[in-house]
Amino acid sequence: MMVKSKQEIITQDIALKIKHQLYKPGDYLPSENQLAELYGAARNTVRKSLGDLTDLGLIQKIKGKGSLVLDSSRYAFPVAGITSFKELNETLGMKAKTEVLRLEEIEQLPANIKVEQVDADKFIFLERLRLINDQPKVLDRDYLLSPPVNFLPMEEAQNSIYAYLEDKLGFVISYATKEITVRKVDDYIASKLKLEADRRAVLVSSKTYLEDARLFEITESYHHPDDFSFFDFARRRKI
């Protein structure tokens, strides 16, 4: 098991305090100096943790005032970053679990997935159902290109793909492109997510790349539309 860094410990502790409203929306967190003293950490480490919390949409830094706690009453998934479900679960305390539905090798991608050029001999297909408070919220379909991912143990599929690739195989995951649409879904997806009425889900399609710009993962994440919000922070930049 990987030992958590001081930065990760601080980020997760503050996130849990926000979740349990020890820090309420509208409150300001203690100053960087106060947090550094509280956690026995360098101020730069605290600053990085506050950056993580900003990226998660839990706080907003206000110049001259500090770190303002935002309303995070709904589960929100960051769009711009590359964060695993396990990392979000640990940081946000979502009481989530994962069920692996399928793990198998396939020769071709489904016809609905459009990729200009794929340098792979085969694909590892992984389908997982994400549950929060025992209710199905996300159906993830991952297509891992082989090579570079030649094998995925079941226990790693159950746990965290990214932890396996980064910590055990030494991969450096760099960036991703993402598209968000609302789609009608088939009977299978509707039954897994317990959808009714017109059976629409939020589909987040992503392609994730290594540091050498190689595509290694294509993902389709079908989200239940009733419980999730997706966020990103946009800041004005003069050109």
UniProtKB/TrEMBL annotation:
Gene Ontology biological process terms from the UniProt entry: negative regulation of DNA-templated transcription
Record's keyword terms, sorted: DNA-binding, Transcription, Transcription regulation
GO molecular function: DNA binding; DNA-binding transcription factor activity
Source organism of this protein record: Ligilactobacillus agilis
Domain HTH gntR-type residue range list: 4-72
NCBIfam families: trehalos_R_Bsub
Top-level taxonomic group: Bacteria
Protein name: Trehalose operon repressor
Pfam families assigned: GntR, UTRA
Classification via InterPro entries: Bact_HTH_transcr_reg, Chorismate_lyase_/UTRA_dom_sf, TreR, Tscrpt_reg_HTH_GntR, UTRA, WH-like_DNA-bd_sf, WH_DNA-bd_sf
Coiled-coil residue spans: none
